[in-house]
């Protein structure tokens, strides 16, 4: 599937969750669940989600190795939840972002996450929706970030989303500012992105050439860029498809399972 040599049972898979491993209902299909569970000792999830929003999926898949949450800001043990690496945003930078957003976009619900909770300014429809899917502890101190691993704003209006993103990238060029799909705008510390998933595996002795990364959105590009092999599901954004070496079926068509089966049969 990846040209000469293909993939083998020694490869290590790093996969995005939403719209990649999960279907459009935010769930694992039976086919994908079975395929991932069969190689669970060589699978890492790399998501913008809070770790508490990943736990059920980790358990369903039987994953015990390191997992990546909050767009690379947190790496934790799948079995125990123990923090392996964490890179918070400088409190002064986080507060400066709060003040700018409050001044220019006062209606935006400014939120941030650490390993323990989701800190929100107020509970709106977007927060309620996410909490209905996978609840995590909430704290009502969104305007006072301290030790934040990831700042998160959910903006449903496309025009406002684009304007806000451009403003923040201009004002804070050193911070990592990424759209994560579905109107989610995330901010992490300088140099912190999903590519840290690959860097962590390499630090444990796994060859970069053995790492296979799969994603669908712009925040997955650092992951694909650092892996030895890059794949995109068929529903991926065009910029992700352009970067990928292999185009898989869509998430609704169990694209990641197709990839796993291609090397499991070798």
Automatic annotation (TrEMBL):
A Pfam short name: Hydrolase_3
Gene Ontology cellular-component terms listed: cytosol
Source taxon at top rank: Bacteria
Keyword Oxidoreductase: no
GO-annotated molecular function: magnesium ion binding; phosphatase activity
InterPro entries tied to this protein: HAD-like_sf (IPR036412), HAD_sf (IPR023214)
Keywords: Hydrolase
Name of the protein in question: Hydrolase
Lineage of producing organism: Bacteria, Bacillati, Bacillota, Bacilli, Lactobacillales
């Amino acid at each position: 599937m990846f040209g000469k040599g293909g993939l083998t049972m020694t490869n290590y898979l790093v996969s995005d969750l939403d719209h990649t491993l999960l279907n459009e209902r935010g769930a694992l299909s039976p086919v994908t669940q079975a395929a991932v569970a069969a190689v669970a000792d060589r699978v890492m999830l790399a998501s913008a989600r809070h770790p508490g929003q990943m736990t059920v999926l980790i358990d369903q898949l039987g994953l015990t190795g390191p997992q990546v949450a909050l767009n690379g800001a947190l790496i934790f043990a799948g079995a125990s939840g123990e923090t392996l690496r964490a890179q918070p945003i400088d409190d002064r930078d986080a507060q400066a972002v709060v003040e700018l957003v409050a001044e220019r976009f006062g209606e935006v619900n400014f939120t941030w996450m650490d390993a323990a909770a989701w800190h929100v300014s107020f509970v709106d429809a977007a927060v309620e929706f996410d909490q209905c899917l996978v609840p995590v502890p909430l704290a009502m101190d969104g305007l006072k970030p301290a030790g934040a691993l990831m700042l998160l704003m959910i903006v449903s209006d496309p025009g406002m989303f684009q304007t806000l993103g451009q403003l923040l990238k201009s004002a804070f060029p050193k911070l990592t500012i990424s759209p994560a799909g579905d109107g989610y705008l995330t901010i992490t510390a300088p140099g912190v992105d999903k590519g840290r998933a690959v860097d962590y595996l390499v630090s444990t002795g796994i060859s970069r050439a053995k790492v296979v990364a799969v994603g669908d959105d712009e925040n997955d590009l650092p992951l694909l860029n650092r892996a030895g092999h890059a794949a995109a599901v068929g529903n991926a954004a065009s910029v992700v498809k352009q970067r990928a070496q292999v185009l898989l079926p869509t998430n609704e068509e169990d694209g990641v399972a197709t990839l796993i089966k291609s090397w499991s049969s070798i």
